């Protein structure tokens, strides 16, 4: 049986996580949590609201009513037992605050502390929601695990950091960073790799039943094996992990904390983005429902 959720939901999950992560990265840089003079304190704010807004439009159309019966979407405003209703309010509030914050940053005006923190909390909620949206679907064992939100949050931070770094290399041209973005990259990628290993181990050992096993097998040795091993694991995790380990060792040896965004780092950031997209594609496309045969 074919799944209803396909590429539109994959793109939404990717953009929602990326936008939320980008806001949190610039928020952390602005607070000084990424080290002294990080050049990531603006770029993430420019990314966050537009990409989440675009992803949300795709989500609306994927619900099946975007073009045919848009008035039925009004039900999402008052069905508070639905995770999607939570998402309507979280996403709407985050997009609004994200645009306000980006405008203030562009105009070089100081935003109220309450607005900054509200945006950060909503960004975290948005990143978590992209995982909760899948976790809430109990009929799909591959999704219904508490690890899903954690995996998506860490991936959101990782892709948000890479997207912010790429944009900062353009908008902050000539401004060398003295932050600890490399260490942040290293930590996030390592944690994401461990969570991914845990997630697929749980599925393959049968904790979530035959459908969980089948879904995981489709990812690791079936029709999505190339996407899993080639793009997600090797390109999205292993390659950037090696890059940032080498950078970390070099910085410790030379005692130099200035980061230049070299072509290797640009390719590494692009790899992280491709890996983040591949992760969501695998999670969505390889998912099999309970009624697909074995667990009727």
Question: Could you characterize the architecture of this molecule?
Answer:
With 296 residues, this protein is mainly α. It has a single domain (7-292), classed as Formate dehydrogenase/DMSO reductase fold (Up-down Bundle), CATH 1.20.1630.10. Helices cover 69% and strands 0% of the residues. It has helices at 7-30, 43-62, 83-106, 113-135, 147-171, 181-204, 209-220, 225-254, 263-285. Helix 2 runs antiparallel to helix 3 (83-106) and helix 6 (181-204) runs antiparallel to helix 8.
Gap from first CA to last CA = 13 Å
CATH class designation: Mainly Alpha
Question: In the residues, how many domains can be counted?
Answer: 1
Quaternary structure annotation? single chain
Q: Could you please say which CATH topology applies here?
A: Formate dehydrogenase/DMSO reductase fold
| Number of discrete helical segments | 9
List keywords for this structure.
Formate dehydrogenase/DMSO reductase fold; 296 residues
SSE map:
Layout: H1 7-30, H2 43-62, H3 83-106, H4 113-135, H5 147-171, H6 181-204, H7 209-220, H8 225-254, H9 263-285
Helix pairs in contact: 1-2, 1-4, 1-5, 1-9, 2-3, 3-4, 4-5, 5-6, 5-9, 6-8, 8-9
């Amino acid at each position: 049986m074919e799944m209803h959720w396909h590429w539109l939901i994959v793109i939404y999950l990717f953009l929602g996580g990326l936008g939320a992560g980008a806001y949190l990265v610039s928020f952390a840089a602005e607070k000084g949590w990424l080290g002294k003079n990080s050049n990531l304190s603006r770029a993430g704010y420019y990314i966050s609201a537009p990409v989440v807004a675009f992803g949300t439009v795709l989500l609306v159309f994927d619900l099946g009513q975007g073009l045919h019966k848009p008035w039925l979407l009004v039900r999402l405003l008052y069905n508070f037992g639905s995770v999607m209703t939570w998402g309507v309010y979280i996403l709407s509030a985050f997009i609004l605050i994200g645009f306000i914050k980006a405008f203030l940053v562009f105009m070089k005006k100081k935003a109220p502390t309450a607005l900054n923190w509200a945006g950060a909390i909503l960004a975290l909620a948005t990143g978590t929601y992209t995982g909760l949206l899948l976790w809430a679907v109990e009929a799909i064992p591959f999704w219904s695990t508490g690890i899903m939100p954690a995996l998506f949050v860490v991936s959101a931070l990782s892709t948000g950091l890479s997207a912010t770094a790429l944009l900062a290399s353009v908008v902050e041209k000539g401004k060398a960073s003295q932050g600890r973005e490399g260490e942040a990259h290293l930590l996030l990628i390592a944690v994401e790799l461990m969570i991914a290993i845990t997630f697929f181990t749980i599925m393959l050992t049968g904790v979530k039943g035959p459908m969980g096993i089948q879904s995981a097998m489709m990812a690791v040795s079936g029709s999505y094996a190339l996407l899993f091993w080639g793009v997600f694991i090797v390109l999205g995790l292993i390659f950037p992990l090696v890059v940032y380990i080498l950078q970390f060792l070099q910085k410790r040896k030379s005692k130099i904390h200035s980061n230049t965004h070299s072509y290797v780092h640009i390719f590494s950031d692009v790899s992280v983005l491709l890996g983040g997209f591949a992760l969501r594609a695998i999670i969505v496309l390889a998912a099999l429902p309970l009624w697909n045969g074995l667990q009727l």
